[in-house]
């Protein structure tokens, strides 16, 4: 049996005032593309944050590539996340002071890679996502689409088992959004990474193999699209 | 736009805005208190002949001028801190002022909002300056004779106070108006961001030339020329050094160093300005140190008991410490501001394991790696220059002074490092807020 | 179906055989049903009768497949007129979905299960449309985008409808 890329078992999470997740279970196979959809405020982003280990599930368990996040010591958990999970947000995730190259190299450097090797790998990814010409520029000098391309490169540079994308096309126009989606899909395919996309956009959800629809913190339905 | 609308628009909104206002008001109040002290000393005319016990710093007209200059310098430092406070909260305030522009405000109206915002801070600071001055003056009166460098306040101070209020309000308003905040609706690259290096290099070189040239002649002017030279050289070279240091850290393989370096590179000028102030404070302390050694050696130990020298050293030391603290507060406030501005980006790094403790380390590195060298260099420059004067005057104590300056500089640097590290700890609340996953929600 | 006007449009760039017209149509709309030869020739002869196209070359052996047609000035005018005229806002096949949803609710069937099935089927169709590699000069992506965006609109309507139904249920409870 192949290991699941991600498994959530009855995960619950509540913010101070409102409950965001009320026992969500979800399995993602290696290389699978899953769209998490639902109206705003349904808990989509919270689900993604819990799965990526940004938030700690208050109840239930999260397994990332077969490892129970709650059972690992903090340092191991961080290392697991760093090497096995990539994250693409709607906007504003790149460090504004760093060039695109350094931004993409960052996860590798944190992993302890040599600077030159990390930068070479970063440049390779920037080339793959089509912004190699702007590798030395900082995010504020570039368009939203170019930044999202770099964000995709940063999410994939460690060769993660799974990439989490939170409304990755949300601040782009349709055409740029489509390009980013195709890029995410093809890049994830290259490394065999699974992809979990949180979106409210049906046209983005249609790229997935499976749709998981959330409503009020529970899964309303799950349908296969492939 | 009527006054009420203006004040409504300029009023601080967020807790950050209120903190910034508090810093502005305190800095202006300090500046006002020092100005009031300065005018009081300047109006003072009593001499030894008056027969009552008073400090020789007030009694001798030459020294009195020095006290006035010191008070004005301190007021200037406090003003610099106030100016720095005005520049805080850049991103959030810029967004707000930009929305004002979009809502149809003319550039002049936006400048007016800036002026009123700063002016209100100046007004409040000016009002507070009076009580602060009277408390300060009363406190000085409680000191022993020689240390009473401030005469007892009199009724004329009550007339000077409103003048100070008006002056500070107007100055603050002018500064607020000139900041050009929110006038640019598009986030373009600051045109001055590229060509600044040459300008600073020239300033620094002029300062350096002044130091070198003035040490060739040896008279009373030397000390002033050298002071000016140090100020210019520090203001010119510090931002360049920060940028260089930032670039070097940025090329490091350690990602936390890289983050710290990149931030330094992008804030080279404001950070550099504050470091220049630190270098200058260190310089003053260095001079005091070398002078103490010199006096110790030449007067055979008498100095320990001489209230005149003790008072002088204590006050100069206190004033240098005050200026250094002001620079430190400004640096710290600027760092807190950065953390707030970049919280979304920083929170996004948490996936890679750049959490609270790592970020705090990066912030600490930014502070310690700039503040400690600045203080050390300042001590070396001040102590070195004074010792070199001794050397040229062929005093025998110059060798010992050099050694003491060297030891003092290392000690000072260490202390500064510790203080900066402790100060970074004060920012842990801001760091925690910056890495909060809530910042990632795309509302 | 505005086949007549489309044929006029296909002749816009110059005289052509009936066969070229058919081929041109199929290239413009690769995802639609191909145009039948019979339809092309009946349309062309009707247009010739109405004076909108004219025969410019009968070919050596005669026969319909050798005949070359061209637009007349009236034909050009008719085409321009057709292009300038906006389409009447009309509802097409959406009708059926509306009817199904109303019937689902009225008969007390599970509306959210219907939503799941409909989303699955619509999203699959969008996915298929997106998966088609579009060659650079083809205009077929226009057609596919049109379809995908209409399917998206269907889904959004469905979401809204079911949201409101759920709300009504919750408040009436």
Automatic annotation (TrEMBL), chain A:
One of its GO terms (molecular function) is transmembrane transporter activity. Gene3D superfamilies: P-loop containing nucleotide triphosphate hydrolases. It holds the Pfam family ABC_tran. Residues 6-225 form the ABC transporter domain. PROSITE patterns: ABC_TRANSPORTER_2. Keywords: ATP-binding, Nucleotide-binding, Transport. InterPro entries: AAA+_ATPase, ABC_transporter-like_ATP-bd, ABC_transpr_LolD-like, MacB-like_ATP-bd, P-loop_NTPase. It comes from Kribbella caucasensis. The keyword Protease does not apply. The keyword Transport applies. GO terms for cellular component: plasma membrane. This is Putative ABC transport system ATP-binding protein.
TrEMBL record, chain B:
The keyword Cell membrane applies. It holds the Pfam family FtsX. It is found in: Cell membrane. GO terms for cellular component: plasma membrane. The keyword Membrane applies. It is a multi-pass membrane protein. It comes from the Bacteria. Its main location: membrane. Residues 69-175 form the ABC3 transporter permease C-terminal domain. Keywords: Cell membrane, Membrane, Transmembrane, Transmembrane helix. The chain crosses the membrane at residues 66-86, 118-139, 159-179, 200-217, 223-243, 274-293, 313-334, 367-389, 401-427. This is FtsX-like permease family protein. It comes from Kribbella caucasensis. The lineage of its organism: Bacteria, Bacillati, Actinomycetota, Actinomycetes, Propionibacteriales.
UniProtKB/TrEMBL annotation, chain C:
Residues 7-80 form the Transcription regulator PadR N-terminal domain. It holds the Pfam family PadR. InterPro entries: Tscrpt_reg_PadR_N, WH-like_DNA-bd_sf, WH_DNA-bd_sf. It comes from the Bacteria. Coiled coil: none annotated. PANTHER family: NEGATIVE TRANSCRIPTION REGULATOR PADR, TRANSCRIPTIONAL REGULATOR YQJI. This is PadR family transcriptional regulator. It comes from Kribbella caucasensis.
